[in-house]
Amino acid sequence: MTDAAISIRDLCKTYAGVKGGAPKRALDGVSFDVQRGSIFGLLGPNGAGKSTLINILAGLVNKTNGSATIWGFDIDEHPRNAKASIGIVNQEILFDPFFTPVETLEIQAGLYGVPKKERRSMELLRAVHLEDKAKAYARTLSGGMKRRLMVAKAMVHSPPVLVLDEPTAGVDIELRQQLWSYVRSLNDAGVTVVLTTHYLEEAEELCDRIAIINHGRVIANEPTAELVGKAQEKIVAVTVDRDVAALPRSTCFEKIVLKGARTLEITYSKDRVNAGEVLGAVQAEGFGIVDVSTKEADLEDVFLNLTRAANAG
Ligand SMILES: Nc1ncnc2c1ncn2[C@@H]1O[C@H](COP(=O)(O)OP(=O)(O)OP(=O)(O)O)[C@@H](O)[C@H]1O
Prior knowledge:
It comes from Sphingomonas adhaesiva. It holds the Pfam family ABC_tran. InterPro entries: AAA+_ATPase, ABC_transporter-like_ATP-bd, ABC_transporter-like_CS, ABC_transporter_ATP-binding, P-loop_NTPase. This is ABC transporter ATP-binding protein. This protein is an alpha/beta fold. It folds into two domains: 6-228, P-loop containing nucleotide triphosphate hydrolases (Rossmann fold), CATH 3.40.50; 232-296, Alpha-Beta Plaits. It has helices at residues 50-57, 79-84, 101-111, 121-127, 143-154, 173-188, 200-206, 224-229, 275-284, 299-312; strands spanning 6-15, 24-34, 39-43, 65-70, 73-74, 86-89, 161-165, 192-196, 209-214, 217-223, 233-240, 255-258, 263-269, 289-295. It has a six-stranded mixed β-sheet, sandwiched between helices. A four-stranded antiparallel β-sheet has the order 2-1-4-5. A four-stranded antiparallel β-sheet has the order 12-13-11-14, covered by helices on one side. The mean pLDDT is 89. Adenosine-5'-triphosphate is lined by residues 15, 24, 26, 44, 46-52.
């Protein structure tokens, strides 16, 4: 029995080849835990295996090997309890366009066996800012509204774990912010959240911990701050005391470009040199330093470095 919200061990999935084609190994021994109460990010390039993993948790895809528990319930031994413990928002928008949002939620609650007096369809619609659309046909909702209805639909049975598979694809910035603030409020209320996203800044902003999956394998699984700290390349912008006629040279610099008459943008590898050495190299070329600013590495850098390294290895 594990205390994790989700616990995955050695999960493998091989899809049979279509029409005599080669079988496809989509998950190749994936293991990780999602702590209760956290927001966990699952990142990876297209085709990495994220949807396969989520569909196994949802009971929509049969795993080839390995095990998974949701809220302590093994998906093979206690599939009903495991399913009741998780709400999943899929990439595709799925609901009957002829039902209204409130009907959609009532039907979903019925499917999960939520008794009528425990249903909270209007409360959920209010939370996702769709109260005034409660009785409109779902087909008349905008893309962003449909997406938010999907989130409300995933929450009808009040699961302790909410999984969002690429929930903001095609959602504009304002609605995305609204969606995230709702996800945050659910998390504040104790719901464990797992999300897959291609928006790295978003994962960086929202997630406590991030796992990166590539070609069906986990290549990183760390607290967000540590993962971001892993980016090796740093950029420092240095403003010098006179116009730069010729760029200074040094083995400390990975790259140097002139930004305006007196500002140098220098990329350096922080596992090789430190900022002091970089500035010293500029001074050694006869420049006085007037101002300095650094750019922190973001997740995009880490992600590219890790996937590049994993692909090369
Ligand atoms: N039903 C299937 N039959 C055969 N191969 C499949 C099937 N579903 C997925 N795959 C393959 O398995 C691999 C993983 O796909 P999956 O959809 O899990 O990736 P993903 O990380 O979710 O990608 P994306 O972000 O594009 O959705 C891909 O190579 C995909 O082509």
